[in-house]
Specification:
Blueprint (H helix, E strand, L loop, with lengths): L1 E4 L14 H9 L3 E4 L11 H6 L3 E2 L2 H5 L3 E3 L6 H6 L5 E4 L7 H9 L3 E4 L14 H20 L7 E3 L2 E3 L3 E5 L3 H12 L3 E5 L5 H7 L3 E2 L20 H15 L4 E4 L14 H5 L6 E4 L16 E4 L2 E4 L9 H16 L3 E2 L12 E2 L6 H6 E4 L2 E2 L11
Parallel strand pairs: 1-2, 1-4, 2-3, 4-5, 5-6, 9-10, 9-12, 10-11, 12-13, 13-15
Antiparallel strand pairs: 6-18, 7-8, 14-15, 16-17, 18-19
The structure holds nicotinamide-adenine-dinucleotide.
Length: about 375
């Protein structure tokens, strides 16, 4: 059985779905790993590294024609056309906004797994790309802020005088937000944070940050550990109350998301106007519409003297580590789809693909199977 690793074609994508370390593990399982020339180059992984791990360079047509194809970003139409019927495609598919793409995959007879739909359960933790990539994004977003901010993050005492620590606010404290708090603290900033889910307060405090109290008069906790969308009145109240509290910050990092919805507006134009010139806003929710109306997706703009960063793909800015984590997540998942030959099987028997729809992880993440569209919703989260 062959595993194909194409070179990612989406603009700005630098990651690769399999690293040489993980390629070695697939080879050990009895699989043939073939990759497109230069597939890992932008992540700092050479073709020679892959060859040493037992993978083989192959023409594009062979890579796309494999039994299993592993990707980072959703395939384009022309890439779907290269996949053969019955292929298992494992990738991030952005299932909430890619209904048409998923229908095309089903029509092509491709069995597709959307990595975003892996349940947030203890059993699936080692496969959770949302968490692994969000952690990296939170770290990289803080570095982006530190570079754009015209002063230091830490307090510094020098012979020319001392500098005050940068005041950072993190709004929305899921996986990315927690890592942003920890990274900003490590750089010496003073950090305060806010989330609509009250249970997050304890996590914020445990990282040594202060909790920003905002009483919107309703609960923001939704099902499965995720946030829910606030009522219109709740949204207005939240924006108003936050506006006043946010003026004092030098850097605001926003990560608030509600699965399948446009990101909530937490930082209004009025609030940005209230910030000091030279302040920085890092809107990590830019891919889902942004937490600030001034954000321009994919761009860095200066509005009212404040730099607003709308970067769309932070993990791709740390491609070596992101690929490491991503490829391990995929390897752990593929254990559910690869069946080793039975004990009594002939010596030359090789692994086979299996689709156990009774398995909760397979059931949640397999979006197309044998020509039909299956799930598309996130499975309920059980806290670990
Ligand atoms: N294995 C596991 O059990 C596991 C693994 C990873 C994450 N999780 C949990 O999954 C959940 C989602 O994490 P995520 O990082 O994917 O989050 P996410 O990207 O969906 O959202 C980021 C944060 O934005 C917050 N938010 C949404 N609307 C808001 C608003 N109006 N105001 C303020 N904040 C708002 C959310 O509460 C969330 O903390 C969390 O509970 C996290 O702890 C569990």
């Amino acid at each position: 059985m062959k595993i194909g690793i194409p070179k990612e074609s989406a603009p700005g994508e630098t990651r690769v779905a399999v690293t040489p370390d993980v390629a070695k593990k697939y080879v050990k399982l009895g699989l043939n790993v073939v990759l497109e020339k230069g597939a890992g180059e932008r992540a700092g992984l050479s073709d020679a590294d892959f060859a040493e791990a037992g993978a083989r360079l192959a023409p594009e047509s062979e890579v796309w024609g494999c039994d299993i194809v592993l990707k980072v970003t959703p395939p384009s139409d022309s890439e779907i056309a290269r996949l053969k019927k019955g292929t298992l495609l494992v990738s991030q598919l952005e299932p909430y906004r890619n209904g048409v793409l998923i229908e095309k995959l089903a029509a092509a007879g491709v069995n597709a797994v959307a990595m975003e739909l892996i349940p947030r359960t203890s059993r699936a933790q080692s496969m959770d790309v949302l968490s692994s990539q969000a952690g990296i994004a939170g770290y990289r977003a803080v570095l982006e802020a530190a570079i754009r901010f015209p002063r230091f993050f830490p307090m510094m005492m020098t012979s020319a005088g001392s500098s005050k620590p940068c005041k950072v606010a993190v709004l929305g404290v899921g996986v990315a937000g927690l890592q942003a708090i920890a990274s900003a603290k490590r750089l010496g900033a003073t950090v305060e944070a806010y989330d609509i889910r009250p249970e997050v307060k304890e996590q914020i405090l445990s990282l040594g940050a202060k909790f920003i109290e905002v009483d919107v008069g309703e609960s923001g906790s939704g099902s499965g550990g995720y946030a829910k969308e606030l009522s219109e009145e709740g949204k207005r109240k939240q924006q108003q109350l936050l506006s006043d509290k946010l003026k004092k910050f030098d850097v605001i990092i926003t990560t608030a998301n509600v699965p399948g919805r446009k990101a909530p507006t937490l930082l209004t134009e009025e609030a940005v106007k209230g910030m000091r010139t030279g302040s920085v806003v890092i809107d990590m929710a830019a891919p889902s519409g942004g937490n600030c109306p001034l954000t321009e997706p994919g761009k860095i703009v200066v509005k009212h003297g404040v730099t607003v960063v709308g970067e769309l793909n932070y993990p791709a800015l740390v491609p070596g580590e992101s690929s490491n984590f991503y490829s391990r997540n995929l390897f752990n998942l593929l254990g559910l789809f690869i069946a080793q030959p039975d004990k009594g099987a002939p010596k030359d028997a090789t692994p086979m693909l299996r689709y156990n729809l009774e398995d909760d992880i397979v059931a949640a993440a397999l979006v197309t199977h044998e020509g039909t569209v299956r799930s598309g919703k996130p499975a309920a989260q059980k806290k670990s």
